[in-house]
């Protein structure tokens, strides 16, 4: 007589959980000076990996990339605009920017042009402050910008496991955010950047996942875009924000959608085989 033992399906359930679960690790900080957010920035660096020594094109150990804007040539800095694909062509770090506005600008070095976007409005050097001196970054004509990932130096779409950014002068709660999307443009969540009252303040927000699932990032910086006469006044409804360092996991090739199906199929075959093996005759 045959006795059939209970079917063991834990391996398949674990596999499905691994494929479908995306739990975000969020690291954030805000404060009046750069020291207020440095520990959070360093914790996010550690989470992404790659160590402390930068290689070519902002690469840290093949695990993390960083952009601090300081290496952008003067010809591509204020009052000139920076090409949207600068960090995939000129300095291939695997990101291409987009905006519904008119472009992007990196603030000028001292002695070349007015610093900290004073070329746009003369109050901005008393409003914003760079985390890594001396340059800042902003989109123009819109406070919204997108970051798309590619295998560095190619047109091949890529994904990453984490993205973080430093912001200057986030005054109001819920005006500045980072929204993440997967390769199918399904949202992985919208994460609000913490705020601090005052001028020349700093905020950091970094989000990471165990797996490389981020294909697209949307950044909303404040609720007004930079512009002549667009001053940032604490206590009113206007919040003008600029950006500094970007940190993100090394862009990786987009997984083939068929691989997941094949993996699940192999797991199912393994469970069926296990069931047959557990059928014994007394």
Q: What is this structure's SSE topology?
A:
Layout lengths: L1 E3 L5 H11 L4 E7 L3 H14 L10 E2 L3 E4 L18 H4 L5 E4 L4 E4 L30 E4 L3 E6 L8 E2 L2 E7 L8 E5 L5 E6 L9 E7 L7 E5 L21 E8 L2 E2 L3 H21 L1 E3 L1
Antiparallel strand pairs: 1-17, 2-13, 3-4, 4-15, 5-8, 6-7, 8-14, 9-16, 10-13, 10-15, 11-12, 11-14
Helix pairs in contact: 1-4
Describe the structure.
The protein has 282 residues and is of the alpha+beta class. It has a single domain (24-257), classed as Sandwich (Jelly Rolls). 18% of the residues lie in helices and 28% in strands. The chain has four helices and 17 strands. The protein has helices at residues 10-20, 35-48, 86-89, 257-277, and strands at residues 2-4, 25-31, 59-60, 64-67, 95-98, 103-106, 137-140, 144-149, 158-159, 162-168, 177-181, 187-192, 202-208, 216-220, 242-249, 252-253, 279-281. A six-stranded antiparallel sheet has the order 2-13-10-15-4-3, with helices on one face. Strands 5-8-14-11-12 form a five-stranded antiparallel sheet. α1 (10-20) packs antiparallel against α4. The longest helix has 21 residues, at 257-277. It is globular. The N and C termini lie close together (6 Å). The relative contact order is 0.21.
């Amino acid at each position: 007589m045959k006795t059939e033992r209970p079917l063991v399906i834990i391996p398949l359930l674990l596999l499905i959980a691994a494929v479908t679960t995306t739990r975000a690790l969020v690291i954030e900080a805000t404060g009046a000076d750069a020291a207020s957010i440095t520990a959070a920035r360093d914790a996010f660096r550690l989470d992404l990996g790659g160590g402390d020594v930068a290689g070519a094109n902002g690469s840290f150990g093949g695990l993390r990339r960083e952009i601090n804007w300081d290496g952008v040539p003067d010809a591509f800095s204020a009052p000139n605009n920076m090409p949207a694909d600068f960090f995939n062509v000129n300095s291939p770090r695997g990101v291409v920017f987009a905006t519904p506005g008119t472009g992007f600008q990196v603030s000028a070095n001292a002695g070349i042009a007015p610093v900290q976007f004073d070329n746009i409005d003369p109050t901005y050097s008393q409003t914003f402050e760079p985390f890594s001196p001396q340059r800042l970054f902003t989109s123009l004509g819109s406070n919204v910008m997108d970051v798309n990932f590619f295998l560095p130096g190619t047109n091949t779409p890529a994904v990453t496991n984490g993205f973080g950014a430093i912001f200057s002068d986030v005054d109001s709660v819920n005006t500045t955010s980072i929204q993440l999307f997967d390769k199918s443009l399904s949202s992985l969540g919208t994460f609000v950047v913490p705020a601090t009252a005052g001028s020349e303040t700093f905020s950091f927000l970094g989000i990471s996942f165990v797996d490389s699932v981020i294909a697209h990032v949307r950044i909303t910086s404040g609720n007004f875009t930079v512009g002549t006469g667009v001053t940032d006044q604490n206590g009113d409804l206007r919040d003008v924000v600029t950006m500094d360092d970007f940190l993100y996991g090394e862009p990786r090739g987009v997984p083939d959608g068929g691989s997941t199906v094949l993996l699940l199929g192999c797991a199912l075959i393994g469970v069926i085989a296990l069931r047959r093996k557990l059928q014994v005759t007394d």
